[in-house]
Amino acid sequence: MSDAAIRRLQEAADAPDLSGTKYELVTALAQGGMGTVYRVRDRELGREVALKVIRLPEASPDIATRMLREARTLARLEHPGIVPIHDVGRLSDGRVFYAMKLVRGSPLDALPPGTLAERLRIVERICEAVAFAHAHGVIHRDLKPQNVMVGPFGEVLVMDWGVAKLVGDASTLGAGDGDDTDTDALAAHAAGPTTGHGVVLGTPGYMAPEQAAGDPALVDTRADVYALGAILRDVSHTASAEPDGKARRDLPGRPLEAIIRKAMATDPRDRYGDVTTLARDVAAFRAGAPVSAYRENLFERARRFTFRYSTPILLILAYLVMRITLLAVRGR
Amino acid sequence: MSAGPRAAVHPPSPVVASFPATRHSVVAGIASTDPHVRRVAFDTLISAYWRPVYKYVRIKWRADRDDAADLTQEFFARAFEKDTLARFDPARARFRTYLRVCLDGFVANEHKAARRMKRGGGVSFVSLDFAAAETELVGLHPSPSGNGASVPGADDDAFFRQEWVRALFADAVAALRDSCAAVGKHTHFAVFERYDLQDDARIRPTYAQLGAALGIPATQVTNYLAFTRRELRRLLLERLRALCATDEEFRLEARDLLGVDPG
């Protein structure tokens, strides 16, 4: 029996019972804290989708109900940057599942080398999706490069909302009696271990200090701002040189560092107030415009201006040189 | 010395039959004061471990086929006589790791001449088909020279674990085949065999193709697969439970192996 056969059987032994559904199991795609994601074929629609099966077969009905409520809430987040949920239900073995769009592409941390500008555009797209979720009362709480998929045509999708926190109106969607505590209990089940006095959800390195403290009441949308700052940090460190071979130091680096610093401030009050403002700064930096997180001195402003408008400046200089040369020739 | 099958006290029954139907641990059984319980537990243990032990001795200790076969038999004979494995302390390691460490110590200390004199030790076990194990080993890890097997750079513990997992799954699949045949569910196993035992996704049939080939609707393929997968999982967990010393070790192994919490 080959190693591949063993892996296949390991998948089979843990496979969800799809009898009575319209889905045919193709293969396991990934395993996370919340459950396992399978590639399945939808027999009725003749297409492949991703089926996330919650690994809580022995969970109480209460927990399963909360999971279904969360799925319904996320299903309302219809945005091109958020993976759409097609179906939700319970398998005959008792496991709760979601059927989602099958996302093809690579996680952000596994992308082939790209330019800083390309990566910053991806961060902007992530920010757009997260800002949309925030506007609908959903805080992701586990943003990291592994949870961002980039498709072959540049589409960006934020994945894995399994530990999301629902606030405001969102927390009452579906069953009508949900609250933050319910959501956190649900997420805690998904995440596993707890530490200290509360539940710690998220990923070290991307988790805001108040989130790491384990008190869900302290966590608001600024925790996602922190995680986005961490993603921006990773992106700025891993992006390759510009296509013309010039190193990134040709660009003004301090403003980008300032954006990251502000997004990742220890005190939430020192961070961007919302994701949209962060996205605006990232876009401004990418366009060579001033950013709100950094006050430039005169030299830096001149340098940025020169960099941003290098082409027209060069054209004007060329024109002036030509004119001076013509005048000089005529004067002889 | 031949590396072929050795004489056996017990009839060469299928390995599956030797696993206890209960969830009692054979690791506890080998420390029993009841000779019959101890013997049955030991046979079960050997059934599960002799192939990984043989392959490990071949690869890690670079023993030739005959020496590896001899060392495998003698290791278990010596362990039975001296109660080595019964001294396992679950607080210190997993049983599989303990067994491998004992094996390393045994092989390192074994003197070739003395070993030949003591070969067999007067104790015989269930039938061990070393020739089949050798064929599998060479098939999986052919040496670049085309002569024998080699696994360059293999991590000892990982290699031993992988061979143990291979033996465990092979036994569970054999048990599934037998149990399906025993209750007339031949089509169930045929579906499982053609779909889940087909590790090459490029040639794996769709449910519709499989249903057409076996004369059943595609929805029935789903049901049959659900049944056989459930059975496979039960058989694997049953074996795993028998081979673990404690509930905690069982849970850890189940999580590592199948990604499940057996509860």
Report what the structure shows.
Chain A is an alpha+beta fold. Helix content of chain A is 41%, strand content 15%. Chain A contains ten helices and ten strands. Chain A has helices at 3-13, 61-75, 116-135, 180-191, 209-212, 221-238, 253-263, 275-286, 298-308, 310-331, and strands at 23-31, 35-42, 47-54, 85-90, 96-101, 106-107, 138-139, 148-150, 156-158, 165-166. In chain A, strands 1-2-3-5-4 form a five-stranded antiparallel β-sheet, with helices on one face. A three-stranded antiparallel β-sheet of chain A has the order 6-8-9, with helices on one face. In chain A, strands 7-10 form a two-stranded antiparallel sheet. The radius of gyration of chain A is 25 Å and the shape is elongated. Residues 174-182, 185-198 and 247-252 of chain A have low confidence and may be disordered. By secondary structure, chain B is mainly α. Chain B has helices spanning 26-29, 35-60, 65-82, 95-109, 112-118, 130-140, 156-182, 186-195, 207-214, 218-243, 247-258. Chain B starts with 25 loop residues before the first helix and ends in a 5-residue tail after the last helix.
